[in-house]
Structure prediction request, 297 residues.
Amino acid sequence: MSDKPIIGAGGSYPRRPLKGAIVRRTRIVTVGERRAAPPRRERATGVIGAHPERENASFNPGAWFTPKVIAALSAVAILAIAAGGGWWVFRSSYFEIKTITVEGTQRVNPDGLAQRAGLAGQSMFNADIGSAQDAIALVPLVKEVHIQRHWPGSVTITVVERQGWGIWEQSGVRYVVDREGVVLGEWEMAPGTPVIRSSALGSRRPGDRVDYQAVDAAAEIYANLPKQLGTRVTEVAFLPGKGVRVTTETGQVGLLGDSSSIPYKLASWAAVEQKAAERGIAYNTIDLRFGNRPVVQ
Prediction:
């Protein structure tokens, strides 16, 4: 072994250590020689668990917050704010129905209609207007109903009341009915109001419907008989076995049978009346139940 001196961390010393001496092992640099660099570690590819070199990796905000990302985050924030604001508006007491106005009533109690609608305290956004209109339409005197919102917290209920057209007399009680035959109640009507006497038994309540064919026939008689006979109708009755019976202001009685073909029967009555006047024939009753064969008594 060579005894060539070596330059180390503590000076020069022979390559062969002295017996019994304590030798400190340090990195040795040989003068005039270049130590070979350690082999470079290749990056593993295609192997689970392999990681890229991270010595120089750091978080770069600019690489993440691009204009598209910022726009997307802004849109999400705006939608979140809008959703929260919309929920607050939807649930806010500011948009509760606090004022209910009822218009068009004459006989119906407006406070009762407002209470029947059940809209007080509901939200303007989801108030059940359809159910409220259906509830009010069940009131006998109400013919039509419309409900309109007025923001932020009121509604208007507009009703069209049924109008009394005639009197339906049954079992000695006189009920006011409209042109559709709906019973409205009991009150006095003006003189000359059509009167229909029914032979049916029992009583009627507001909201009931009488025989609409009887009402149609009576309406036709009251409208056209005065034009054809020159006299006023005082009563139209519906009797078992005889059908429609008409009494005029002059005391004449006409039996018309069922409620069909009323215009034809009235025209036949007018023709008989003309011939009877020409011949000087007086009669009290005319039976028109047999078509073109009227009988007078």
